[in-house]
Design goal:
- The protein is built from 13 helices and twelve strands.
- The protein folds into two domains: 136 residues, Rossmann fold (3-Layer(aba) Sandwich); 146 residues, 3-Layer(aba) Sandwich (Rossmann fold).
- By secondary structure, the protein is of the alpha/beta class.
- The longest helix is centred in the last third of the chain and has 16 residues.
């Protein structure tokens, strides 16, 4: 009887052990989130991404873990931070901006990358096509090269006598973006002055230069670092009485004059759907890169009044939101 009992126990124990080759329980998936801003600042874009994950059943701390890394507004840190996430062997890395995408591509890792790009990733050389990006990268991409003309048209409509415009940009700006903005300005008959700023400490000097050279307005070109400093940029534009246009509405909500472009929060929200599919087995190279389909014009009337501007009624009627 004792031998029979031992045989039964042995049989039961063997059936409870998975056979070699069977699927083993895996740990919680890990997402590497590389932010361009500061770790101490609540990021609306990060929250939009987490909201997208929650809607798809990925709950941070329960069904998924997020490893955060923050560049603290210093693009020179991006390659090392990408390296940290690669070493951590996360399942997928999400990031935004040309500098971050380039750092991820140069890392030559096979880890899937989901990005938000404010310029055409094909023109920038990151992927061969939007429909089939191939490799380990995909995501959501704006079309600033096409938006630049529309933004300057709106700025000129708001300021009919505008003849000179300053372009504010970062040194690492993609050449295609800067070239598009300069060409758009000249096409509209505007004299262009390009001002590159590497540090926040250089912001005021750039605005002083724009004012002293009689620029009638300033066009802030897209950058994650400018987005993190948008309140400072709006304050300087007000102080030096320079009407400004931006790509995203959060600048206008923080005191900027006007914006035209897609919703940056929605772009980050859409990244979650890519992460969801990748964690479920999809290959990033097989997932087409999305383009924003909705663009919004936002105008801050309080800022206009402070600048002594009267925004034409025809422009106000076309705005998606007018901040009173």
């Amino acid at each position: 009887m004792r031998l029979i009992g031992l045989a039964v126990l042995l049989a039961l124990s063997l059936t409870s052990v998975p056979h070699v080759g069977e699927a083993q329980p895996t740990g919680t998936p890990r997402i590497g989130y590389l932010g361009n801003g500061k770790s101490t600042v609540v990021s609306a874009q990060a929250e939009a991404f987490r909201r997208g994950l929650r809607e798809l059943g990925w709950i941070e701390g329960q069904t998924v873990t997020i490893e955060y890394r923050w560049a603290e507004e210093n693009p020179d840190r991006l390659p090392a931070l990408v390296g940290e996430l690669v070493q951590a062997k996360v399942n997928v890395i999400v990031l935004a901006g040309t500098a971050a995408i380039r750092a991820a591509k140069e890392a030559k890792s096979a880890i899937p990358i989901v990005f938000v790009s404010l310029a055409d990733p094909v023109t920038l050389g990151f992927v061969p096509s939007l429909a089939r990006p191939g490799g380990n990268m995909t995501g959501v991409a704006s079309e600033f090269e096409e938006l630049a003309t529309k933004q300057l048209q709106l700025l000129k409509e708001a300021i009919p006598n505008l003849s000179r415009v300053a372009l504010l940009c970062r040194p690492e700006i993609a050449p295609i973006v800067l070239t598009a903005a300069e060409a758009a300005a000249r096409k509209l008959g505007l004299t262009v002055r390009t001002l590159k700023v590497a540090e926040v400490a250089e912001f005021e000097s750039a605005f002083k230069t724009a004012r002293s050279e009689r620029a009638g307005a300033i066009h802030v070109l897209p950058s994650p670092y400018f987005n993190a400093q948008r309140a400072r940029l709006a304050e300087l534009a007000a102080r030096y009485r320079l009407p400004a246009i931006y790509e995203f509405r959060n600048y206008v909500e923080d005191g900027g004059l006007m914006s035209y472009g897609p919703s940056i929060d929605e772009m980050f929200h859409r990244m979650a759907s890519y992460v969801d599919r990748i964690l479920k087995g999809a290959k990033p190279g097989d997932l087409p890169i999305e383009r924003p389909t909705k663009f919004e014009l936002v105008i801050n009337l309080q800022t206009a009044k402070a600048l002594g501007l009267t925004i034409p009624q025809t422009l106000l009627l076309r705005a998606d939101q007018v901040i009173q």
